[in-house]
Amino acid sequence: MNELKQQHDMVISGTGQGNILAEKDRARILVVSDSHGGKVMFASIIMKFGKDADALCFCGDGIPDLLGMLEDSLSREELSRNIPPVIAFVQGNGDQSSYTLLTDERVPVSVPILQTITAAGKKILITHGHRYNVYIGTKELKADAEKLGADIVFYGHTHIANALIKTKRGGAQGTKQKIALINPGSCSLPRGGLPRTFAIVDVFKDKPIPEYSFYEAKWNEFEELTFVPFCPPAGEINLFW
């Protein structure tokens, strides 16, 4: 990524890249959340998976890690080449509403509570989740996503990887429109005995439901960081059960 510029919609991207993302027939999105100081892990994920992604969505609690990774990319050409052309992000309960990106100038960066982007014709809502009681389920999050007309939701906060496909309320008679609710888990501080995880989501213009896969970050016997497919827990997550 050669241009670090926050656009009017608060997405960091090159000029026109948001429109390109919206018009794609298929868009691959790298979804990361809750890095909590894990800038090195964040950068490692970008180095491995960023090049093939059309966008990066960060669901909060670690905005300094995201911005630190972007700052590092200014002097690390290989890292810069692997950063997706569109970066959407939101404020977690541990983040501030504004930061400064240190390039050759001090660039102010505003961090929204909610963000929406369009990828392959699908509207995606990005939020951290702490304002929707996601510790006890996704009912409130789904209801608000429906009001906003979202087809897909990315959220974090629970630190537990999860993916749910639910039926939207209402809609045209005789149809059952679906909405995908995807939590990539935490790439640094997972809960519930789960590993460090993130997600890759493929969105299609001609398919109502995205395809998604989760990956675990782990160290092998040679103390090298590796990434292996991971199957997240099924069903609603309730941290108080």
**Assembly type of the shown chains?**
single chain
CATH topology: Purple Acid Phosphatase, chain A, domain 2
The total count of strands amounts to 14
Class derived from helix and strand content:
alpha/beta
The best one-word shape is: globular
Mean pLDDT rating: 94
Biggest pleated-sheet summary: 7 strands, mixed
Number of helices: 5
User: What's the CATH H-level superfamily name?
Assistant: Metallo-dependent phosphatases
Spatial order of the strands forming the largest sheet: 1-4-3-2-12-13-14
What is the straight-line distance between the termini? 43 Å
In short:
The protein has five helices and 14 strands. By secondary structure, it is α/β, with parallel strands linked by helices.
Q: What can you tell me about this protein's structure?
A:
This protein is of the alpha/beta class and 241 residues long. It has a single domain (24-230), classed as Purple Acid Phosphatase, chain A, domain 2 (4-Layer Sandwich). Helix content is 19%, strand content 32%. It is built from 5 helices and 14 strands. The strands form 3 sheets. Strands 1-4-3-2-12-13-14 form a 7-stranded mixed beta sheet, sandwiched between helices. It has a 5-stranded mixed beta sheet with strand order 7-8-9-11-10. Helix 2 (39-50) crosses helix 3. The longest helix is centred in the N-terminal third of the chain and has 12 residues, at 39-50. The termini are far apart. Keywords: Metal-binding. GO terms for molecular function: hydrolase activity; metal ion binding.
